[in-house]
Amino acid sequence: MVKKYDSYFTDFNNMVTDHLEEDIKLIYPEIKQECLNCTLDTFVGISKSSGKYKQGGPIPFDQGMPCPYCNGEGHKIIEKTENIPGRIYTSEKPYLKVKNVNIPEGAILFICRLQFFSKIMQAKYMIPVTEIYNYTNELYELNGQPESVSFVINPIKYISCLWTKNR
Questions:
Q1: Which of 6, 16, 67, 150 has most Cβ atoms within 10 angstroms of its Cβ?
Q2: pLDDT tens-digit profile of 47-56?
Q3: How far is CA 125 from CA 28, 76, 105, 115, 147, in A?
Q4: What is the separation of C-alpha 59 from the centre of its chain, rounded to a whole number of angstroms?
Q5: DSSP per residue, 13-56
Q6: pLDDT at residue 79 is higher than 70
Q7: Where are the beta strands (DSSP E) in 20-165?
Q8: What's the predicted TM-score (pTM) here?
């Protein structure tokens, strides 16, 4: 009986991918990375730049000067980001009603493939990649756990998650 719907769901999933999905940028928590340009002074357990250039570093500098790569901190804060595709639903009205749930203004309902579940759960923020993305970065935080929104017989599984505006 399931075979009867295989071509329907293949067409459905292809149509979703080709015509309905937009990218969002996931922003993961920052990590502290040791400076690639200078050596560390770990005196009394505090890691700070020693002011000495590390051979092979990207920006040579004179000894005793602050490292231009890390500003003398001895580390850089690295922010990892990644784009994932999905469907974005927003509303200009104070509330959008979806599946008997009121979504507050400044919220985005995002539906994507189940394969992105772990990436969404690890993300600190999300930014919709829209035509005004380069001019304004509205940050959204995950509001609750993603939920399954798939047809039982569809071989591709989808999840929905609510993101609320942070700033």
A1: 67
A2: 788 889 999 9
A3: 7, 20, 17, 18, 18
A4: 30
A5: HHHIIIII-EEEEEEPPPEEEE-SSEEEE-GGG--EEEEEEPTT
A6: yes
A7: 22-27, 31-34, 38-41, 48-53, 75-78, 81-89, 95-98, 101-104, 107-113, 125-128, 140-142, 147-148, 158-165
A8: 0.69
